[in-house]
């Protein structure tokens, strides 16, 4: 899935300065400092002139994800991104589990992260309900998981199963065909950030299938 010559997001290195006035909660400051030196998953996109461009961009245009799928050009200031996640974690520890919130404060500014706000930022369509919300992800009762893996691997793959309940768990992404690999790399850096892209779990497989099948 990733183009071989894709450019990485420009990362602007900024010295980390612990400001006691900035972090009123010592636990927040502690977690912020703990993040320093951790692996930073950078977003990746698609080059308009890349290999398999026609196949990739027909799907991009269908979903109206042109801005979302382009390789980011802006500099990334790592401490700002880290502070966003620190603030988010702090909110999670303070609010009841059933209470949802829509923004956090980063460097004195309120940052909205609702699905609608994210879609507006990327000029992408926002849907009240979508393919995943209508899918039963616990036992996959309404999904033909064998058909999904056959489609993603061109009939070359098999699911690994949980022995206790006989439900599929994952498969190796190496057997997927090129376009699917490219989309999986995008999903794992821009939608569901993860360092382990070698094994495709059921959720990623269903999401990938929905993207490619234009659900």
UniProtKB/TrEMBL annotation:
Ranges for domain Putative plant transposon protein: 63-213
Any Pfam family: Transposase_32
InterPro entries listed in its UniProt record: Transposase_32_dom
Domain of life: Eukaryota
Identification of the protein by name: Putative plant transposon protein domain-containing protein
Organism encoding this protein: Gossypium raimondii (Peruvian cotton)
């Amino acid at each position: 899935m990733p183009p071989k010559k894709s450019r990485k997001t420009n990362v602007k290195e900024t010295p980390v300065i612990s400001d006691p006035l900035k972090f009123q909660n010592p636990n927040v400051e502690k977690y912020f400092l703990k993040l320093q030196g951790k692996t930073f998953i950078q977003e990746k996109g698609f080059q308009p002139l890349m290999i398999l461009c026609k196949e990739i961009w027909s799907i991009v245009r269908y979903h109206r994800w042109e801005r979302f799928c382009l390789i980011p050009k802006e500099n990334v200031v790592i401490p700002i991104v880290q502070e966003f996640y620190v603030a988010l974690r702090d909110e999670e520890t303070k609010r009841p589990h059933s209470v949802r919130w829509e923004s956090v404060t980063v460097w004195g500014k309120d940052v909205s992260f609702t699905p609608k706000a994210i879609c507006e930022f990327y000029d992408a369509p926002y849907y009240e309900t979508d393919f995943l919300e209508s899918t039963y992800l616990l036992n996959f009762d309404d999904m033909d998981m064998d058909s999904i893996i056959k489609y993603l691997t061109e009939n070359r793959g098999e699911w690994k199963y949980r022995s206790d309940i006989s439900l599929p768990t994952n498969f190796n992404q190496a057997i997927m065909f090129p376009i699917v690999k490219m989309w999986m790399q995008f999903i794992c850096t821009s939608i569901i950030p993860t360092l382990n892209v070698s094994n495709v779990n059921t959720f990623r497989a269903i999401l990938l299938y929905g993207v490619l099948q234009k659900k």
